Amino acid sequence: MKKIAIFISGRGSNMQAIAQEVKSGILQNLCQIVLVFSNNCAAGGLQIARQNGLPVGCIESSGKKRTEFDREVIAFLQPYQPDYIILAGYMRILSPVFIKTYEGKIINIHPADTRLHQGLHAYQWAFENQLETTTITIHYVNEGVDTGQIIAQQNVDLKGAATLEEMEQRGLQAEYNLYSRTLAMLFAESDAQQ
Ligand code: GRF
Fold it and tell me: Which atom of ligand 1 approaches the CA of 172 most closely?
């Protein structure tokens, strides 16, 4: 049974979808959420996490240097001993000290093919370029922005999506599905190896 800490900065809908699968879906008995963490204490997702009875924590990142902030986060995480850090809309670039501490254990979801688009506003990019499909990507996190090894991808049909909101809604449904399925696969594999 893996211990996971989910990192969010805002809405937290991916976190909520994972929490649902942990409670009574494909992640049940594969992992437990030991912490929902945010760098933004006003993140809407923290409230959702609390309502779901999940342990929450936050440290405000604004005005702090990346390494200084990440050292605080590492110390904060210590008592929770997470096996994996699951980024779900976490809007901070992680510093090398954080990446080293959790080497190979940090996973992110990106709403595009990371080989084609990195960074923010991936749905807007798809919308503006009138893409007929986009590719949701789950990847390991390294020191670059959306450059880590790809774990899983899934295409989403965007044809006929008239607005950016509609496109994002379609994409998000695929995100929820792919993230939990991929984590379930990873955790099951790693349990089998032990
Ligand atoms: C998602 O589109 C995710 O792929 C991206 O940021 C968004 C976060 O949404 N990294 P939410 O906070 O999970 O609702």
Answer: 2
Ligand 1 nearest-atom number relative to CA 16: 13
For the chain, percent helix, then strand, then coil, each to nearest 5?
Answer: 40, 20, 40
Taking only the tens place, the pLDDT of each residue in 103-151 is: 999 999 999 999 999 999 999 999 999 999 999 999 999 998 889 999 9
Q: How many distinct structural domains can be found in the chain?
A: 1
Mean pLDDT score across all residues of the chain = 96
**Which amino acid is located at 192 in the chain?**
A
> What 3-state DSSP class applies to 161?
coil
Is 110 part of the annotated catalytic residue set?
A: yes
Cα–Cα distance measured from residue 137 to residue 154, given in angstroms and rounded to the nearest whole number: 7
The enclosing domain of 56 has a CATH number of 3.40.50.170
Ligand 1 site, residue 111, Cβ cutoff 6 A = yes
Ligand 1 pocket check for 146: Cβ under 6 Å: no
- Residues 178 and 187: their CA atoms lie apart, in Å, by 14
The Cα–Cα gap between 159 and 6 comes to 32
Residue range of the domain that includes 164: 2-193
Q: pTM (2 decimals)? A: 0.96
